[in-house]
Amino acid sequence: MDIKAYIESGIIESYVLGMADDHERAELEQLSRQYPEIRAAIDAFELSLEQNAMANAIQPAAHVKANILTEIAGEFSDITEARTTAKLVSMSTPGTGWLRYVAAAAVILLVVSAATNVYFYRQFREASSQYQSLLIEKSSLLAQNQALQAKGLDLYQGMQIMSDPAYTKVSLPGVKADENKLATVFWDKKSNDVYLLTNRLPQTSADTQYQLWAIVDGKPVDAGMVDICNGLCKMKNISNATAFAITLEKRGGSPTPNLDQLQVLGGVNG
Amino acid sequence: MEVAKKYSESELVRLLQQRNQHVFSYLYDNYSGALLSIICNIVKDEELANDVLQEVFVKIWRQIESYDSSKGRLFTWMLNIARNASIDTVRSKSYQNNLQNRELSEDVYVSAGTSQLQVDQIGLRKVVHQLKEEHRVLIDLSYFQGFTQDEISKMLDIPLGTVKTRLRTALTQLRGIIKP
User: Tell me, what's the ipTM?
Assistant: First the structure.
């Protein structure tokens, strides 16, 4: 094979410039391994092409390199270089590290503060509801106290009446089979004031009520309805009574006693 | 250039394949100008040529694994990437449309624009410009425009054999002129 003629054929330039077809390329690569002259000719043309291009270099626009580095950022292995070039992605400068601790501390403080707020709010709610129930208890106690005071006063007044010599005491025991029942009338014959103490009378139903009668000149006279009272109940004034009796009547009372429902009866002594 | 060269080609390739940014930066600083001169021979708009240069360096970075040093120099490999990317750009629809628009307003463009390159005065074009017309046309169509010899044969209505012979002659002469 005429190596010199082959080298001079233009095939080497065609190959280097990328214009050779597949067949030509394969042939040249094989021959270049076989003949050092061919290898040398390829190298020489490559070098002169490179030198020509170097000598005719055109300065690229300044932004091109930055654009390229941006496009392939993250594909580099040398981290130090990457950090210098892309300062924006740097996360480990000392200032940032310090700030991270401050940020972490702030977050922790916020969480602690929030938890404390929740704790105190619960405490407040609890105290507030306890205060409300104490207020209710207090007013209830106050009412009870007033009721007891009123009851005490009534009992005191009743005791005054019962121990007053001006009052005549009339015991009204139960009649018929109801001997266990008992009521007591305190009657001032001069002022005609009548007070009743219901010692032992069963509770009435909702539509019935006890009624006190005075027997005046052999006839029953209405002496008033029996209400629930502390100690003595003030009844209607009665004069010249010879006896007192209590019947069970419809609520509100009757003009004449229902003698079937006579509960207690007692005569006035002397 | 020679003073700045602190890496041998094999070192360059090894470090690029290890994804070393420092070496990539060095590669750009050393070869971007030379590659841009080739791109400008094909893409005649300076701004677009810079865009192609950007694309070329991203390709170099991403395809460095496929570079085989037994088949030629690193620069030759990069040069071919630049040439192919440039031809692809010129053949793209958007470039062709743009070119038509420019031709319509050619006068305005020439008087106002400074980015239109005098490509015949640059690098390889300058060398090719020294060839005879019949050779220059063949190099232009095949190397700078990327047509196959078959296509050229049909375009110029010259037998394929003649295209082959003339092109070989043109290339041989080219080497003579390029050789320092």
Answer: 0.85
